Amino acid sequence: MSSYSVEAILKATGASKFASDFRIASQSVGDFEKRHQSSFDKMRAVGGKMKSVGKTLTTAVTLPLVGIGAAVMSTGAKFSDQMSK
Q1: Tens of pLDDT along 21-55?
Q2: How confident is the model at residue 11 (pLDDT cuts 50, 70, 90)?
Q3: Measured CA angle at 77 (ends 74, 82), to 5 deg
Q4: 6 close to 29: Cβ distance less than 8 angstroms
Q5: pLDDT score of 12
Q6: Cα separation of 50 and 75, whole Å?
Q7: Contact status, residue 18 vs residue 10, Cβ threshold 8 Å
Q8: Are 11 and 22 in contact (CB under 8 A)?
Q9: How far apart are CA 85 and CA 83, in angstroms?
Q10: Angle, CA of 27, 30 and 34, to the nearest 5°
């Protein structure tokens, strides 16, 4: 899903002038989008790759670290229980 933000300042000096200016502004936005479509596509591709890297890091790094942390806590609790006896 693409979204764009455009700010335009139009001066209404008459209905026909306003309509003409609006058509020109609309054409300019369309031309901008056409000229930069490949850049937008490349940014989307980079975003997809970054998302993939994030998933891989979560699976390969974060989850094992959480598991190690849980094991350390469990071992520490068992050790403390045994020392207090």
Answers
A1: 889 989 998 898 899 999 999 999 999 999 999 99
A2: low
A3: 125
A4: yes
A5: 62
A6: 36
A7: yes
A8: no
A9: 6
A10: 135
Question: According to the model, what pLDDT value does residue 16 have?
Answer: 81
Structure tokens belonging to residue 59: 């699976």
Cα distances (angstroms) measured from residue 50 to each of 37, 53, 72: 20, 5, 31
pTM: 0.48
Which residue type does 19 have? A
The answer for residues whose C-beta is within 8 angstroms of residue 21's C-beta and 6 or more apart is 10, 11
Residue 10 near residue 25 (C-beta atoms within 8 A): yes
Q: What string of DSSP letters covers 43-72?
A: HHHHHHHHHHHHHHHIIIIIHHHHHHHHHH
Tokens of 26: 């609309």
Could you tell me if 21 and 10 are in contact, meaning their C-beta atoms sit under 8 angstroms apart?
yes
- List the one residue out of 4, 9, 13 whose CA is nearest residue 32: 4
